[in-house]
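pipeline stage [seq->struct] | target=AGE family epimerase/isomerase | organism=Vreelandella gomseomensis | residues=415
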Amino acid sequence: MTHNTNQKPKRWLDSAAHRHWLTREGLALFDFHRQARLASGGFAALDGDGCIPHGASADTMLTGRMAHSCALAALQGVPGAAALSEHAIRALAGKLHDEQYGGWFGVDPAMSHDHSKQCYIHQFVTLGAATATHAEIPGAAALLEEAVGVINTRFWSEDEQAFVESFSQDWSELSDYRGGNSNMHGVELCLALADVRDEQLWLDRALAIVERLIHRHAALRDYRILEHFHGDWSEWPEHNADRPDDGFYPYGATPGHGFEWSRLMLHLEASLESRGCTAPSWLFTDAAALFDASLRDGWRTDGAPGLVYTVDWEGRPNSLRRRHWTHAEALAAAAAFLRCTDEAHYERWYQQLWDVIDTIFIDRKRGGWYQELDSKLQIDAAEGDVKPDLYHAYQATLLPRLPLAPNLALTVQRL
C-alpha cells in the first residue's frame, strides 16, 4: 500500500541516531512510570516527581494501560516488564473486577461510590489483556476471554454498529449518551483483537465505526470531529458547552483526536489490505483530511507553540491547554502518513512535533513528560503537577518504527 505523490524526503527514521534516541526515550519513560506500581495491587497516577501521592488508589484505566505498555516492553526484552504486566493483570482479575455483576470498576471500589460500568475503561482492560496474552503473561488469556465476552454482550451494539457508553453497576440502565472518544478507542481495540485473536469481525466493526463517526459526521463539519451524541445517535454539539477543558468529555472539537483517528484509519486500511480485503477509497482520503484539519485548527492558533486542546465549531481556540497526548498522537499520525506516502509534508511535521515535545514536555530534571500545560506552557494549575500516564508517550516512541499492520503487539519485537 503506497500513496506516493512526492519525492521521498530524507527521513529521521532512516537515521540510526534518531532510532537510538527513540529507544532511549522510550526506556526512560518506562523506567519513570514503573514507579506507579501499588504494593496493594494495580497502578496509580504519579505526581510530577514520579511518586505515588499519599492515599492514592488503583485506577482501572491506568492499570489496563500499564498491562498493555509493560507487555509491549516485555516483548522488546526489557527486564522486569513482564512482572509489572502480570501485576496489572492480577489487579484487573481481582480487586478492580466486579465479582457480583461482572465487568470492571473505574477505580478501587473501596475508594469511590461511582460503580458505573464505562465502555472506555473496559476497552483498556481488554487492550491490556490482549497485549499481555500475546506476551504470554500469566493470567492474561483468561482475563481476555472474560473481557471480550463483556465487550461483546454489553458494549457492542449490533443494531447501532458502534459501542454504547455506559451502564449502571448491575447493567440494568443504559445511558442515553453515545461518545466519540470511547468509539475511537473502540477502533484501537478492534485493530488489536483482529490480530491477537485472528478474527476478521473486529475489522468489520472498526470500519463501521469509522464510517459513522468520520465519513458521515466529521466530513460534513469540515473534519471537526463531533464527540457527543444522544442515545439515538442524533448530534449533540453543545454538550458540556461550559466545559471546554474537560479531560474526557470536552465541548467542541479536539484536534488531538483528529490526529488519533487519522492514524487509526491508516492502520485499518493496512489491516484490511493485509487480509486481502478492499479498503474503501474514502478511508485514506478522510484520514488525510482529518490530519490537515487538525493542524489547521490546533497548531499555534493562539500564537503560542504547540497544539491547543479544543476548538469551537468555527475552529476558534476554545481550550488553550497543551496536553502531552495531543502532541504524541500528532507525531505518531505524521509518521504513519509518512510511511504511507513518503511525502515531505509529513516528514516536516514529524520532526517539528518531536522538537516541540523535546522543548516543552520532556522533564529532564525529574524524568517523564509534563502531561498538562497551560497556554503559557507552565504546569496547569487546574490539573496540578501530575504525570499519570505512560501509554501515549511510550507508544509515540514505538509506532514510528513499526509497520501499520499487523498490530504493534505482534511487531514490537522487531525493534
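stage status: PASS
auto-comment: The chain has 13 helices and twelve strands. The chain has one domain: 12-414.
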